# Entry
Amino acid sequence: MISSLFTKFKGVLMTIFITAFAILGAYTLYLNYRFNSTKTQLAQKEKDYEELNIATALAIVEMNKALALEKDISKEKAINQNQKIEVLKHSQKVEQEIIKRGGVNKNEKRNPIIVNF
# Structure
């Protein structure tokens, strides 16, 4: 019985098997293409990641340099500010000493002028 069915539908069965193998082959080719494209995309992403890591490391180094420069600038500003304060203190002491001696003529628009010394 099976053999009689096989002989009657031999052409149909062969067509079904050939079609199934063709579909299976096409699906295998599709999977291979997807695998290769995914592999290429992964390689590109890894390359981009490495470039990003390098760029990040360079940015960190440059930011540290900029931070050190800012620290130096702020130190210099603080030193200059302290020196200005010291100069003002000394100039006020000198001005008070001159006033004590009585030899200062003050003009409203200018600094004190020494008359007698």
Notes: The mean pLDDT is 84. The chain is about 85% helix and 5% strand. Helices lie at 2-8, 10-101.
